[in-house]
Please model this.
Amino acid sequence: MNSTTDKTCTLPSDSGAASAERELWQQPRADLVENEHGFQATLDMPGVNKDLLSVAVEDRILTIEGRRKTTLDGSTLHRESTTAGFRRRFTLGDSIDVNAITASIRNGVATIGLPKVAKAKPRTIPVAG
Amino acid sequence: MNLTTKEKGKTMKLTKNCRPTLFDTLGIGRWNNFDEEIERLFNTPFAGMTRPTKFFGDWTPALDLTEDKEHFVAKIELPGMEKDDIEVSLHEGVLTISGERKAEEKKEDEGRLRTERVFGSFSRSVRLPKPVNEDKVVANYKDGVLTVTAPLMDEVKPKQIAVKVK
Model:
């Protein structure tokens, strides 16, 4: 897997009308591990659940998006969370079997499983004789 | 600061460099009472609301505070925690949320290609500007967000006053 292709979002400087058309995204923090069976990506997306998460692959680009409620009820006294949804893209190498990708989310952490194609797995060859 | 010593026929100069230290840059001075400085930090308006980096823990989760007619609501982003690892307490009008996010165990045969997520202990405190009913505060953890709802004491809720026309 190589680099991400998404840029972090910039906040609009104009009024509400124009910003309503543009969706804001931020990149969630992600960990990536690899073992002989495949890769696993774990992304922090607080506030996102199964219904708000979308995972899609097109032309070997994996896009993980999590939308969430970004307006606060009542009057805001102090705000540190952003108004952006989460989006991260990864370019998948040839060793990944895109038809076998799995995704789940629990407590705001999305886990994406990316198994390797059979020929990319290490294979021991028995020695005859 | 220079110190000179005189040995037989020789003079040695010792120079001490006084570069600005951390205390000077914070504007508090090395010799001030540390406890007083911390008091001062917390007594200025909204001082407790700033995000201290790594001062009280390993990471600082984002905190939002809102108010409606009946409650204060504090929301804090805590992805990947178990609710037993989160502590919420309210003492003299200061709400404190703390805990520890435990790192997942590294498996033997796994190689870590990228590590961005933060783990470890955290603590956020916020002073609630109005008195609340401490017995009726509830905290709910869902989808990685902890929501603490604190109902206002009746005497500070906005009251509608009926307008009578004679």
User: Anything to note?
Assistant: Residues 1-9+31-68+82-120 of chain A form a domain with the Immunoglobulin-like fold (CATH 2.60.40.790). Residues 1-21 of chain A have pLDDT under 50 and may be disordered. The radius of gyration of chain A is 19 Å.
